[in-house]
Amino acid sequence: MPKVFLKTYGCQMNERDSEQVLRDLTSRGYTLADTEADADVVLLNTCSVRDMAEQKAIGKMGMLSRLRAGKPEMVFGFLGCMAQSRGAELVRDIGHVDLVVGTQKFHKVADYVEELVSRRRALRDSLMDEPRFSIVDTGEEPGSQETIREHVLEERQCTAFVSIMQGCNMHCTFCIVPSTRGAERSRKISEIIREVEDLAQKGVREVTLLGQIVNLYGRHEFEKVNGISPFVQLLEAVHAVEGIDRIRFTSPHPIGFKPDLVEAFGRLPKLMPHVHLPLQSGSDRLLKQMHRGYTTAKYEALTNALRAANPGIALTTDVIVGFPGETDEDYALTREFVQRIGFDNAFVFRYSPRKDTPAATMEEQLPESVKEARNQDLLAVFDTMAKERNEALVGTNVQILCEGPSRNNAERLSGRTPGNKIVILEGGQRHIGQIFDVRITRSSGFTLYGDPAVL
Fold this sequence. Notes:
Blueprint: E1 3-8, H1 12-26, E2 31-32, E3 41-46, H2 51-64, H3 67-70, E4 75-80, H4 81-86, H5 89-93, E5 99-101, H6 109-126, E6 135-137, E7 159-163, E8 165-166, H7 177-181, E9 185-186, H8 189-201, E10 206-210, H9 230-239, E11 246-250, H10 259-267, E12 274-276, H11 284-290, H12 296-309, E13 314-321, H13 328-341, E14 345-350, H14 368-391, E15 397-405, E16 413-416, E17 422-425, E18 435-443, E19 448-452
Parallel strand pairs: 1-2, 1-3, 3-4, 4-5, 5-6, 7-10, 10-11, 12-13, 13-14, 17-19
Antiparallel strand pairs: 8-9, 15-16, 15-18, 16-17, 18-19
Helix pairs in contact: 8-9, 10-12, 13-14
């Protein structure tokens, strides 16, 4: 069977979608290639949130065209958000692209790959020319949210992503996601729990629930029960799964934090005390133009409520700088606001116009030089806060789940605290998959280093 190479751009949702595609292909006998040059099939799972992500994927695919000269039967494909957004134009504009599959058709990828591989091999064996043949599928499919449910687990893997919903109905003026991912649609709790139970039986101890606006899960499909929202019902059901010791979720929206969800951080011990809470701007004027649905006062009240429910909770965020019309005063408000809230870490993005979004046609688009200056300045603010919070942990004991070798040094191990901070430590195979205390010995700013306090 052919070898497949799959590169993923973007968020955890994309990572989870790629895992499903690889599972479908390997279950049919395909093997994974270490490099593009070793592969018979090369797939790029793409992101459209920012223009840079699209350009990286397009540039990568362009460089891969040279491989077909030595292996004319190779198959090249785009998957995911950019594929959904651009569709057939990718085949038209990039001469060697054979496959374009959108966000609701990941479960069809294996079928399409096999069809393309079969046709190319038949063409090679017949020594005949044939008009270019490609497959483009970006259509909607009811029930597609139920198709991302199976996993490819590595040996001793103890964490896993679980997709619980697809799509978004928020229509923030800067965001292309509603058009690339479609409307909100949620999986049944029973199906999600079946998946989580299977993961637990295979040794997974921590699951991260995924959705575009994850804490709005089930609001259109399922009813509240005794005043408890569908999302909190799901958290309670996952909490009851034997073998699962840690629960996380991403990414939520501030408007989805109702009292029952805030309260859950104080009563569900398996729910890890970390919330990634996108802010986007500290200017109420810009929040209104972004259609975010909250003010800075409401956002601050939410952070206070979360900290009251669980005083040790870690808060991280997203901020956009350079949104159309952002003045020096707007940016100063953002800078002051994030310092007042006090975040553990953040992602800062320069505004990037996305096609067919209202913000792309707004007046007062800012020059890149202004965006870059504000980006670097705000990154420095967040870096200072992150370093201070990490330094405060030096000399203390923290609990981690040891996930395996460190990405940057395979001789060391890596784990995460309940607040989602990375800890690097010395250790052996016996530590992997275990939850234990470590003594934090030093901080490099963003990474903590520790020694096992037990084991």
